[in-house]
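Look over this one:
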Amino acid sequence: MSFLTPLLLRGLTGPARRLPVPRAQVHSKPPREQLGTMDVAIGLTSCFLCFLLPAGWVLSHLESYKKRE
């Protein structure tokens, strides 16, 4: 590395340091209605079916994907 590298890098990042960073105004409130047991069960079941079931199917059939026909 040459002795000019730190000066060049400082020149590239210098203007970016002066830009204001926008802050998100996120405020949380308590829920209007509490989730029931059935709501939680439906949510967990749908997550299982959407994400874990296809991944499990692919992993169980991995050997057939490796074979060339």
